[in-house]
């Protein structure tokens, strides 16, 4: 299908490194915790080594317009979703409590800078949050600014169209086409790299969230949306929120989601990787997938 585009997208991404890591998490074998600069040897939860912005709490940030990973409950205004549950279980496995507040919801493109801005210079954590958990793909670019945990879920991109549309990835790469993406995401990156003609004519429209993108596609403002496949499927096929939209095709990018942690807090990263591994082994991860996807994914 789109092998060329896929390959060029993967170039420079951490696919190989990531795959090695998931087999470690995924098969639950007796491997030692993922090595990260040698810090994995240190007892990850030894007292005083994990610095947290709020004591006893794992304070999280995300971008809450990404169902079923993170979104707001319409009635209560509380965050919910796969990643929210994952954060709560993760915290529990670390002897902490997940901390989500009104300030936890931010623009997706500000998550990585916010985590890397936390100040650990005097041995305590001063800043907004300990981790960003946001269906965030592990990429080399992000790994320059923050550490990423071992992968916890595989994902791909997708092309979303109106049901009556006959557009294809080829036909969309033309002047005058409008393709909506979420700002700062791998979907945006894929679209820019693989739809260069549309991009050159300002046809790749960056929006704050993917719900706006789908609404705009529905009302014919845009010709297509490129977003993570599990999100498109959930909104259109599971929840049936858009009767007139379809997931036209999956785009195999081989992405993997990880949790962003400051580079200055290696003990926290090691503890998170250890907890993730335990959650695979004790069935918590499987249960979360069944809850939010109806089956293991
Ligand atoms: N997986 C994509 C990325 O990492 C999209 C993530 C968007 N997440 C969100 N919570 N809005 O770029």
What do you see in this structure?
It is built from eleven helices and 13 strands. With 297 residues, the chain is an alpha/beta fold. The protein folds into two domains: 23-153 and 257-293, Periplasmic binding protein-like II (D-Maltodextrin-Binding Protein, domain 2); 156-255, 3-Layer(aba) Sandwich (D-Maltodextrin-Binding Protein, domain 2). The strands form three sheets. A five-stranded mixed sheet has the order 5-1-6-13-7. The protein has a five-stranded mixed sheet with strand order 10-9-11-8-12, sandwiched between helices. α2 (15-27) packs across α10, α3 packs across α10 and α3 (82-93) packs antiparallel against α11. The model is unreliable at 1-47 (pLDDT under 50). Arginine binds at residues 62-63, 65-66, 69-70, 108, 134-137, 182, 185-186, 228.
Ligand inventory reads: arginine
> Portion of residues in helices?
25-40%
Total domain units: 2
H/E element sequence: HHEEEEHEHEHEEEHHEHEHEEHH
Largest sheet: 5 strands, mixed
CATH homologous superfamily of the largest domain?
Answer: Periplasmic binding protein-like II
Report the end-to-end length measured between terminal Cα atoms.
23 Å
Spatial strand order of the main sheet? 5-1-6-13-7
Name of the top-level CATH class of the largest domain: Alpha Beta
* Low-confidence blocks of residues: 1-47
Structure in a nutshell:
It contains eleven helices and 13 strands. With 297 residues, the chain is an alpha/beta fold.
């Amino acid at each position: 299908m789109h092998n060329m585009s896929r390959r060029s997208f993967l170039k420079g991404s951490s696919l190989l490194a990531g795959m090695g890591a998931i087999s470690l998490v995924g098969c639950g074998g007796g491997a030692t915790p993922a090595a990260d600069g040698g810090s994995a040897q240190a007892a990850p939860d030894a007292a005083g080594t994990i610095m947290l912005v709020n004591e006893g709490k794992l304070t999280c940030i995300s971008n809450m317009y990404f169902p079923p990973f993170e979104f707001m409950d319409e009635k209560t205004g509380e965050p919910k979703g796969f990643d929210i549950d994952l954060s709560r279980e993760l915290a529990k496995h670390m002897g902490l409590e997940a901390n989500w507040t009104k300030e936890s919801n931010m623009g997706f493109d500000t998550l990585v800078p916010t985590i890397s801005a936390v100040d650990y210079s005097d041995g305590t954590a001063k800043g907004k949050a300990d981790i960003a958990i946001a269906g965030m793909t592990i990429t080399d670019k992000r790994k320059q600014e923050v550490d990423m945990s071992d992968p916890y879920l595989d994902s791909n991109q997708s092309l979303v169209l109106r049901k009556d549309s006959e557009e294809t990835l080829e036909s969309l790469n033309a002047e005058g086409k409008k393709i909506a993406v979420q700002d700062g995401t791998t979907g945006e990156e894929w679209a820019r790299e693989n739809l260069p003609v549309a991009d050159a004519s300002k046809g790749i429209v960056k929006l704050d969230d993917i719900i706006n993108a789908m609404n705009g596609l529905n009302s014919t403002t845009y010709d297509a949306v490129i977003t993570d496949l599990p999100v498109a499927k959930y909104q259109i096929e599971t929840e049936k929120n858009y009767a007139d939209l379809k997931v036209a095709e999956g785009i195999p990018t081989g992405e993997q989601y990880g949790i962003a942690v400051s580079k200055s807090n290696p003990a926290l990263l090691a503890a998170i990787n250890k907890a993730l591994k335990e959650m695979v082994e004790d069935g918590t991860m499987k249960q979360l997938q069944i809850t939010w996807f109806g089956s293991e994914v």
